[in-house]
């Protein structure tokens, strides 16, 4: 009798396991959005000692994901206000990036056939201005952010986000939809609560969206730690974490600001499945 019960329990466990494995992840598509274009004044700022004084075209990228539970946006780019500035936004430090905005994020989102109000969830890699410029274009969207980033005091102790914006504060990695399709990966170092995003698409496979854990291909290859980073050791550990994850997941690394790479990818209204 005991053995029969044990067998029933075992077969139930196996059945549950099979049912779980067969649950289809709800992710459908991913769109790449143009969130700004610019020129970095001196790329040795990101990889100290390498290519001193050399400038490089940069892009600023946002990603919009269609999931059965709702639309999710990753990073919000340079503020749409810059679109109205004929000469773009010149940096205070000429070694940094001069951003121009040929198209607004609001218009880019509409290329996917939706309105900003349709976006239900959002996350930003970190709180530098070229990533949080349009957070309030989505005042209704649940924001996923590391607690360490949320609590990091801004200039004059200003909060990084509007206190009334709906928020889920994280302490580490987070599977957003519970189906493994969209997972936030904690990659601190560039800022205290920097994060990256692992996306598993049904046809394209796994993609790791870098945030600013790395800024361009050469910067990744030489493991350059930008001079302005919050913590050097954390930055290097996060790069190793990403490297291990890429190997384990057989994932592509899509680098947010790498123009040469982004020029090889299709932009909205085209999408990846
Ligand atoms: Zn950036």
What does this structure look like?
This protein is an alpha/beta fold. It is 23% helix and 26% strand. The chain is built from 7 helices and 12 strands. It has helices spanning 2-22, 105-110, 129-132, 147-150, 217-221, 232-249, 259-262; strands spanning 27-40, 56-67, 70-74, 97-100, 119-123, 142-146, 167-170, 174-175, 182-186, 195-201, 205-209, 252-254. The strands form 2 sheets. It has a 7-stranded mixed sheet. It has a 5-stranded mixed sheet with strand order 8-9-10-11-12, with helices on one face. Helix 3 (129-132) links the parallel strand 5 and strand 6 (142-146). The longest helix is centred in the N-terminal third of the chain and has 21 residues, at 2-22. The protein is globular. Mean pLDDT is 93; it is low at 13-21. Bound molecules: zinc ion. The site of zinc ion (ZN) has 5 residues, from helix 3.
């Amino acid at each position: 009798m005991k053995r029969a019960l044990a067998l029933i329990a075992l077969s139930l466990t196996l059945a549950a396991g099979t049912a779980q494995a067969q649950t289809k992840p709800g992710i459908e598509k991913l769109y790449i959005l143009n969130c700004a274009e610019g020129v970095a004044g001196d790329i040795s700022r990101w990889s100290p000692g390498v290519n001193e004084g050399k400038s490089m075209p940069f892009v600023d990228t946002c990603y919009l994901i269609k999931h059965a539970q709702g639309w999710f946006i990753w990073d919000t780019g340079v503020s749409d206000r810059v679109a109205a500035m004929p000469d773009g936004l010149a940096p205070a430090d000429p070694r940094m990036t001069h951003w121009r905005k040929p198209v607004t994020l609001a218009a880019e989102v509409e290329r996917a056939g939706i309105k900003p109000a349709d976006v239900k969830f959002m996350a930003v890699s970190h709180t530098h201005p070229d990533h949080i410029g349009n957070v309030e274009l989505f005042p209704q969207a649940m924001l996923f952010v590391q607690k360490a980033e949320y609590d990091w005091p801004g200039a004059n102790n200003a909060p990084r986000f509007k206190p009334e914006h709906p928020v889920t504060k994280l302490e580490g990695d987070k599977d957003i939809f519970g189906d493994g399709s969209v997972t936030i990966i904690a990659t601190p170092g560039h800022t205290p609560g920097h994060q990256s995003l692992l996306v598993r698409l049904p046809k394209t496979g796994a993609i790791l969206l870098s945030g600013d854990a790395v800024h361009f291909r050469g910067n990744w290859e030489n493991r350059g730690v930008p001079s302005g980073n919050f913590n050097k050791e954390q930055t290097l550990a996060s790069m190793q974490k990403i490297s291990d994850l890429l190997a384990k997941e057989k994932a592509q690394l899509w680098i947010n600001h790498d123009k040469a790479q982004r020029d090889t990818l299709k932009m909205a209204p085209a999408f990846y499945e």
